[in-house]
Amino acid sequence: TALNVTGTSTFTGGLAVNGGTGGATVTLGDATDFGTGAVLADGTGGANLVFNGAAAQTVTGTIDGFAAGQGTIIVSNTAVGPGVTFSNAVGAGAALGTININAANTTTFSSTIDADLIRFTAGGTVNFNGNVNSTDTTGVIDFAGQTGTVVLGDNFNIGGAVDNTGAAGNGTLSLLSAGASTSTIGGNVGATAALN
Q1: Ordered strands of the 38-41 beta sheet
Q2: Which of 30, 65, 151, 157, CA to CA, is 20 to 30 A from 185?
Q3: Higher-confidence position of 176 and 61
Q4: CA neighbours within 13 Å on the CB side: how many for 102?
């Protein structure tokens, strides 16, 4: 099942994406307001939200898994400069499974984020301005051999590793703190291949 929205979209009553047995993908090409929130239920086919605009996109409203570890966000925006900005919490109600950043521009998460795996498949910059949390122990951030930069603010808890499963020397991790904070990376950094 697929829904493709190229213009501005508002889901006043929220959005539920149910993967069922065949999978479901909702592709959004412009500013989006999820109203009461978006919920992604994988089923056995997988539930995907794709943000692929050619200009800067602002996403308003929370995005959650139906249960912890469900749902995938794919960012493939092609704008120059700012790409997709998520204004509200992602995974606060129930952590997402995967967030795949496939954009060479700047993706910004303005609020808290909780996902099992955050993967980069294009060289861009990702700003995490709120708390980042994951209890997954198999690796939450993977640069996949890309030259991107991840900027982490205060109070992040990464249960697994920060890794680069591609060519060595790619991927930059910046840790910023504006004051007293508690941050944890539970696994190794660059164990498969070294970061930049």
Answers
A1: 15-18, 38-41, 63-65
A2: 65
A3: 61
A4: 12
At 82, the amino acid letter reads P
SS3 content of the chain, % helix, strand, coil (to 5): 0, 45, 55
For 13-42, write each residue's pLDDT tens digit.
Answer: 999 999 999 999 999 999 999 999 999 999
Calpha distance 72→42 (Å, rounded): 9
Q: Which residues contact 130 (CB under 8 A, 6 or more apart)?
A: 89, 109, 110, 111, 112, 113, 153
| Rounded percentage of the chain residues whose pLDDT exceeds 90 | 54
User: What's the rounded Cα separation, in Å, for the pair 59 and 40?
Assistant: 15
Query: What value, to the nearest 5°, has the Cα angle with vertex 182 and ends 176 and 188?
Result: 75
Q: Which helix (H) or strand (E) holds 129?
A: none
Structure tokens at 169: 């020397």
pLDDT at res. 169: 81
- SS3 string, 91-105, reads CCCCCEEEEEECCCC
Averaged pLDDT score across all residues of the chain = 87
Which tokens in the block code for residue 194? Answer: 């070294």
